[in-house]
Design a protein that fits this description.
By secondary structure, the protein is α/β, with parallel strands linked by helices. The protein has helices at 43-50, 95-102, 109-122, 125-128, 139-151, 169-184, 196-200, 220-224, 227-232, and strands at residues 3-14, 17-28, 32-36, 56-62, 65-66, 80-83, 157-161, 188-192, 205-210, 213-219. Strand 9 (205-210) and strand 10 form a beta hairpin. The longest helix is centred in the C-terminal third of the chain and has 16 residues, at 169-184.
Length: 237
């Protein structure tokens, strides 16, 4: 399987404080990779670095092109779509308007229509609420809008930052069922998540970041057998 994203010796510093210390990471085509770690480990910073939103050194190769230093607003043109933590919806826009904002770079009307139907298949509630204002919907429904909006960008790489944060378990399961559907449709996914059990349910491979350092990596099955991971991340000793 060919590599779509290849990160080498990635370092991020803010005001003299180093957040990431030489991260090496790979995401292959049509693969779901999860990045796990405690709060404050640098997981969100990793996604921000890929999106051109953090002061970064190292190498970020996307389909063979070094995108380090490219301005953030140009990153989606490469097919990298970032679904941020806490959703960042347009609260006074309807569901439909939020979804169409995800497609703002696209000119292919037929493709946009097809992807809209895809979103409705993954999250049927959105079709029922198309005219409803985003701010009036529940947290779980807002997260569905955010993921669907990202899909409307037709991503080659879909980056999801903490998609289950603040949600009840039953809602988390719906969100991750949707992510699993996206994976089955052949999308390449990089997901940052604190709920290790949910993330391991969809990921092919796992990276663990602690204190800005990459401490573990491997297939999901490999890490499920690792005693440290089982104890620290899965609550199994």
């Amino acid at each position: 399987m060919s590599s779509l994203l290849n990160i080498k010796d990635l370092k991020v510093s803010y005001g003299g404080a180093q957040i990431l210390h030489g991260i090496n990471l790979e995401v292959r085509n049509k693969e779901c990779v999860a990045v796990l770690g405690p709060n404050g480990a640098g997981k969100t910073t990793l996604l921000r670095a890929i999106s051109g939103l953090a002061p970064t050194t190292g190498e970020i190769l996307f389909d063979g092109t070094d995108i380090l230093g490219i301005e953030a607003y140009k990153i989606p043109e490469y097919g990298i779509v970032h679904c941020p933590e806490n959703r960042k919806l347009f609260p006074e826009f309807s569901v439909l308007e939020n979804l169409m904002m995800g497609a703002y770079l696209r000119k292919d009307k037929e493709g946009i229509k097809q992807d809209m139907e895809l979103c409705f298949k993954i999250f049927p509630v959105l079709k029922e609420r198309l005219k409803q204002m985003a701010q009036t919907m529940s947290g779980g429904e807002q997260q569905m809008i955010a993921i669907a909006r990202a899909i409307m960008g037709n991503p080659r790489l879909l980056m999801l930052d903490e998609p289950s944060i603040g949600l009840a378990q039953i809602v988390k399961e719906k969100i991750f069922d949707g992510i699993d559907e996206i994976k089955k449709m052949g999308k390449t996914i990089l997901i940052v998540e604190q709920d290790s059990v949910m993330a391991m349910g969809v990921a092919d491979r796992i990276y663990i970041i602690e204190g800005g350092n990459l401490t573990k990596s491997g297939t999901t099955e490999e890490l499920k057998k690792d005693s440290y991971v089982r104890d620290a991340y899965l609550g199994v000793s």
